[in-house]
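Second attempt. The first submission of gamma-glutamylcyclotransferase had a stray character pasted in from the spreadsheet, which I only caught after the job came back as garbage. Lesson logged: always re-copy from the clean sequence file. Corrected sequence (206 aa) follows.
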Amino acid sequence: MRRALALLALLRAANAVLVGDRVSYLAFGSNMHPAVLTRKRGVEPLRSMPAAAEGWRLGFSLRGGGREPSFASAEPDGRRTLYGVLFDLEPLDWARVCATEGVPFGYLAVPVRCRPLDADGRPDRREPVEMAWTLVASPGPARVADEADEPKPSERYLSYLREGARLSGLPAHWRDYLDGLSRDAAAPLAVDPVDAAWVADRLKTT
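This time the job returned cleanly.
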């Protein structure tokens, strides 16, 4: 009974995320990079800030193919914390994110509790929880069930996570963690030169 009530409360809070003219979305993968979210997907956030979801981890449990062995997914894990960028989006832009990410076939949109970060780059428990949607790999043949079996992502894909985290102001400890996922942390970022140029031009005008 207690679990049912807790789930009902969570779903009610999640529904509140969709009320009004904006949707909250926690991005942790390549959508943290502005060239992916804005240049490629055509999504211009209304607000963005670094945030964390406790009880979740960064996984690579969505199997890819060809040059992309895997893609990032939020995975429940009571011992860990997932860091990312909390965006406020217009509902149509959220629908565009879902469509381009293959929801509900590749991913499922699930509600998570997020907190902004404190001065040390950790979840600030003095601040109220914000409900947001995030993306979890859908059940099916492309989902890798065991963390130990998750395919290591490509350097190209990791480059978007690493540079997206830097551009979005995520804390140094999370950027170091992302660097550690690389086969060669000293390797040059493999971000598409067109995307890199677009970001450079955008930074000049802000």
